[in-house]
Fold this sequence. Notes:
This protein has strands at residues 2-5, 12-16, 21-22, 24-30, 37-43, 59-68, 71-81, 88-96, 107-110, 117-120, 126-133, 142-151, 156-165, 174-181, 184-191, 199-205, 213-214, 221-222, 232-241, 247-254, 269-277, 283-285, 312-313, 325-327, 336-337, 345-348, 360-365, 370-379, 386-395, 398-407, 411-420, 423-426, 432-433, 440-447, 450-456, 463-464, 469-470, 488-495, 502-512. Helices cover 0% and strands 48% of the residues. The radius of gyration is 24 Å and the shape is globular. The model has no long low-confidence stretch (mean pLDDT 96).
Amino acid sequence: MILFQEVLSHDYYIATSTFEWFPGVEIHHSRDLVNWRTLTRVLTTEAQVSLRGNGSSGSIWAPALSYHDGLYYLLYTDVKSRQSVYKDLHNYLITSENLLGPWSQPVRLNGSGFDPFLFHDEDGRKWLLNMRWDFRKQHSSFSGIVMQEYDPHTGKLTGPIHELYHGTPTGVTEGPQLYRRGGYYYLLVAEGGTGVNHMVTLARSRTLTGPYETDPDFPIMTTAHDLTYPFQQAGHGSLVETQSGEWYMAHLCTRPIPGTATLNPLGRETAIQRCEWTEDGWLRLAHGGKLPALEVEGPDLPLHPFPAVPGRDEFDRDQLGAPYQSLRVPIEPDWASLSERPGYLRLRGRESLASNFDQSLVGRPIQHFACEISTCLEFAPEHFMQMAGLALYYDDKDYYYLRVTADELRGPCLGVVMCRGGQYDELTSMQISVRTWERYYLKAAIQGRELVFSASPDGITWTAVCTPLDFGTLSDEYGGKLGFTGSYACLCAQDLDQQALPAYFAYFEYKALS
């Protein structure tokens, strides 16, 4: 995640991680740092990045967007493996004269670590920073921030690798951002890991290559000392100065389910803090203290709201756009079509919800602790290997799925299957026969930690098909795992016999509740 202002304009942009969700790298746009819209997603083809087979919460990490001399530079990491002692990391750079593209073909720069950042110095030289991963026994895996010069003429790194900063005793030093101000180079880093000990630390040096001294009152911001605070896991900061000289810091955080510190099914989110510089040249939160403010005074800029994204989609457009994404592969007409049957999204069944390759699934992030998600499905399964419906999905090991299928006794039937911590289960006691139904209205209702699925033949009379389920299991850290994506509401279809049976969805509605 990185926040920056376009030179000579009043436009601000944030590029955020998309992990295994495709298209990759989401760019958000604002003119006032208060109101934001999704402007575009950058990685739209498999020629730009191939995510097939990548593990959950891997793939696209930490995009870094910058602008210099009429050109946008976008760095991103494609994480091929992350669960073992090794990290297989592909750091790429692409460029464009326009954020809406076209973008250049990716150039692979290195793989020594993640969180790459490109610094454009005043003398015109460019430098690539990243954290360095050390897999060796009796070594710190987060072994410090390194830097190497980037040559824009050859598109390659050149010269020696400089070790800039090894962080504080907190450890897990990552997410480097480099700025130049008042005769200093300022290095902003994340520390403590992205869990409850997450924080933002600042260091500075008179020379580019260091040595860097740590802010004596570090960290700038953290929630590690207050696990009851509504924001948690605050860290990974990125700075911007407005045209009127005000300073703000975008950062990652989570909003856990009230009463918990780590159940965060909404995933990593982005917040913004107002900051001030002290007389001796260190950065502080403008409201004081170390905790991020829950409400922040906006900059001295005219408000510029954008039209709200409609909550209901009747599938009457030419193509799926925001807010939809797919898993690991582009949304293509061979499996997802809006034209085959106008007014419907047609999904052809492919692999299971456990697949890291070819799923027929489109979804949008869940952003509220009180919401309803609904759809209407037409589907004619012939056996148990064919399924379609509404899924609340975290990853291949954690999901709830209200699906229509068929079995030998009841014919077409409807019920909930689930996977929690990798353990598959079926709510067989509440599965119902739907032999006489012509359409299947499906709904998921979330209230805090409770999730209830319902179904209807007409969209009027609803029947609950489960007792309340635990929405908290669809969290980044459920069961001891470390994920990043948050949960998604998804339409999907499977045909494990590989006959590509179609499912037709008449609409998709996401409704936030007060």
